[in-house]
Amino acid sequence: MDHPLLSYFLDAADGKFPGADGRCVVVPPLSGGLECSVAFTGFAVVATALTPDAVADQGPDGFGESMAPDFLRWLAGPDGEIGVLDATLVGRGNRAAPGLPELGDVDHPRVRHARQWRKDVRVYGDERGLVTLASGLAGRRELSIELDGGFGTGVGRGLLRDALGLVPDGEPVFAAVSPGNARSLRAFLAVGFTPIGSEVLLRPVRG
């Protein structure tokens, strides 16, 4: 069965967002022992094994408190792992794009990171860099890229446009981009990705 969080992402991809009423809703944890906090405009979703009452007692809301450092540390537990805060972007597959060749067994930091947090990771690329496609947060299709040099020459945008040819035409594909990585963020926006929220993944450790 699909995870409840997936419907929020797919609805947002179609421009249908939850009401900006400040609520923070709790849904079951993700597979693989992962949890997360996701924020849309004025609305938050926390995927966790903890009870809704326990989460509510910490005071998270849809106006930013669900991403507060103290709340995330409580959610992860004192020894849990907290991922970085990422902007959540969505684009659409474009089979008119050339696509990219699939690569074999690639040992690269970008690929290792993808395999740490995602499932069914496949790697594509050429002399410009690497692209990963995977089943990510709540089972959504996720894309990430890593350039092999060539910054500032439009290489990243070209690689992303070609990567969209790997996704069925018109189907949503998501990306998590650090807001501080302005160069990458500009590239995704330039090829048609749209910001829909923010997210933090966690691997909790609780006594």
Secondary-structure map:
Blueprint: H1 4-13, E1 24-27, E2 35-40, E3 43-47, H2 52-56, H3 69-76, E4 81-82, E5 86-92, H4 109-117, E6 119-126, E7 129-135, E8 141-147, H5 155-163, E9 172-177, H6 182-190, E10 194-203
Parallel strand pairs: 1-3
Antiparallel strand pairs: 2-3, 2-10, 4-10, 5-9, 5-10, 6-7, 7-8
In short:
This is GCN5-related N-acetyltransferase. The protein is α+β, with helices and mostly antiparallel strands.
Mean pLDDT rating: 94
Q: Kindly estimate the percentage of residues that lie in beta strands according to DSSP.
A: 25-35%
Name the poorly predicted regions: none
Helix fraction bin: 10-25%
DSSP helical segment count: 6
- State the oligomer: single chain
Q: Determine and state the CATH class of the largest domain.
A: Alpha Beta
Q: What does this 3D model show about the protein?
A:
The protein is an alpha+beta fold. The chain folds into 2 domains: 83 residues, no CATH class; 109 residues, 3-Layer(aba) Sandwich (Aminopeptidase). Helix content is 24%, strand content 30%. It has 6 helices and 10 strands. Strands 1, 2, 3, 4, 5, 9 and 10 form a 7-stranded mixed β-sheet that branches. Strands 6-7-8 form a 3-stranded antiparallel β-sheet, with helices on both faces. Strand 2 and strand 3 form a beta hairpin. The longest helix has 10 residues. It comes from Stackebrandtia nassauensis (strain DSM 44728 / CIP 108903 / NRRL B-16338 / NBRC 102104 / LLR-40K-21). This is GCN5-related N-acetyltransferase.
